[in-house]
Amino acid sequence: LQIMDTPCCSNIYNMEGYSYVDESVLCAYRDGVDTCAFDSGGPLMKK
């Protein structure tokens, strides 16, 4: 997983209509991979 910086994460969430991203939020991603439906906000785990 890659960790996304807060300004980039905030921009993406703002495009989706959300505006609550601040320094307490951690955004992570992996190209070509998505969470399951209704899984946003779930725990972030790494093997």
TrEMBL record:
Taxonomic path: Eukaryota, Metazoa, Ecdysozoa, Arthropoda, Chelicerata
GO terms classed as biological process: proteolysis
Molecular function, one GO term: serine-type endopeptidase activity
Peptidase S1 domain mapped to chain residues: 4-46
Domain of life: Eukaryota
Pfam families per record: Trypsin (PF00089)
Name the UniProt record assigns to this protein: Peptidase-like peptide Lm1
